[in-house]
Design a protein that fits this description.
With 356 residues, the protein is of the alpha/beta class. It is 42% helix and 15% strand. The strands form 2 sheets. Strands 2-3-4-1-7-10-11 form a 7-stranded mixed sheet, with helices on one face. A 4-stranded mixed sheet has the order 5-6-8-9, with no helix packed on it. A hairpin with a 4-residue loop joins strand 3 and strand 4 (141-147).
Length: 356
């Protein structure tokens, strides 16, 4: 049938071209008509090109069907971040980020991405103590950030500031949300003047310091027990942001110890990081695997390790006096974290619909 259509199309197309030539020849000459005449002569003088044009014309409907089908598939797979769809899904919902300045990075990114999707909508943004709140009243949605670097408690006592590895009274403020996105690690390694505690306490044991990875595992285990005992997974979705890497040591990506993120303009090539993942990433996966409540890991470590070019560096808060290779530029890497978050939400919703 297709060959018959093509055979019948040849004289039809040739007749149309011949008619166009007659029309142009009868009209007053212009540079446009001269150009068109040359194009038509070239097409008629090239059998291969003419055949291609005929095939496209006779199958244009089929090509449109294929194109629309592919676009439908792409749309159904939720490829890319769709802020308006996100807002429709979470209209009337409350979202809370809990963590350190890397949580701030992701929170800022998500609020910008959502507002950019509905730029005409009014929004509010405020901060009270450690709680920042962004709202879009038209969608009755709030996206909040609770600054909490360790998740477990730091309490001021007579001896000083005590990091309590088995206490998480802060958790009372995290209840009643539809989505929780947790993060901690960045501050566990800080020492000296940047260390925000004086002692570590576990049970009745108080000490001046301990192995930081051991402390991190204990603190994260306390958080996991709080989630298991305090969160209803049928109401609240729980995520853990994963470990965000730094780029202060060029040896990690085979560029020499003195190299940092400063002056970097290209990401690391390939899909693996020469130094491998940080030890903390394995601890996160270990703790999450033992939980009874489903917690989705935003496994952002490797993809972020490849972006040695994505930090503020000397353009951060401290300017040229500092070199910030911990946090991320916006727009930038945290946008990808939120794309992953959105992809998980869409996929989970689709799977739940199929199960029901």
């Amino acid at each position: 049938m297709l060959s018959i259509q093509r055979a019948n199309a040849v004289p039809s197309v040739q007749g149309a071209v011949s008619g166009a030539m007659n029309l142009m020849q009868s009209a007053p000459p212009t540079w446009q008509s001269a150009l068109l005449s040359n194009i038509v002569i070239f097409v008629l003088g090239s059998p291969i090109l003419l055949s291609v044009i005929i095939i496209i014309i006779t199958n244009i409907h089929m090509l449109l069907v294929i194109y629309n089908s592919w676009m439908a598939v792409i749309s159904s797979k939720g490829v890319g971040f769709n802020g308006q769809d996100f807002l429709r899904r979470y209209k009337g919902k409350k979202i809370l980020f809990v963590g350190d300045s890397l949580s701030l990075n992701q929170w800022q990114s998500l609020t910008c991405m959502l507002h950019a999707s509905v730029p005409q909508s009014k929004f509010t943004i405020s901060r009270q103590d450690d709680l920042s709140t962004f709202t879009l009243p038209d969608y009755d949605i709030s996206v909040k950030l609770d600054r909490n670097a360790f998740l477990v408690d730091i309490v001021k006592e007579k001896i000083g500031r005590v990091l309590k590895l088995d206490s998480i009274k802060n958790g009372d403020a995290w209840k009643g949300y539809d989505m929780l996105i947790f993060n901690t690690w960045h501050w566990w390694l800080h020492k000296g003047s940047k260390q925000p505690w004086d002692y570590i306490e576990e049970g009745n044991n108080i000490q001046k310091d301990m192995d930081r990875l051991v402390a991190f595992r204990k603190g994260l285990t306390t958080w996991s027990k709080w989630v298991d005992s305090s969160v209803n997974p049928s109401i609240t979705k729980v995520f853990f942001q994963g470990i965000s890497p730094t780029h202060y040591n060029g040896q990690e990506w085979n560029e020499g110890k003195s190299a940092t993120c400063k002056g970097q303009t290209q990401p690391i090539k390939g899909s693996t990081y020469p130094a491998g993942p940080p030890q903390a990433a394995a601890i996160v996966k270990e703790v999450l695997s033992k939980m009874s409540t489903p917690v989705r890991l935003l496994d952002v470590t490797t993809l972020s390790q490849l972006r040695k070019d994505g930090h503020p560096s000397v353009y951060g808060l401290d300017g040229k006096k500092g070199n910030d290779c911990s946090h991320w530029c916006l727009a930038g890497v945290p946008d990808t974290w939120n794309e992953i978050l959105y992809a998980i939400l869409v996929t989970d919703a689709r799977n739940e619909a199929q199960e029901n």
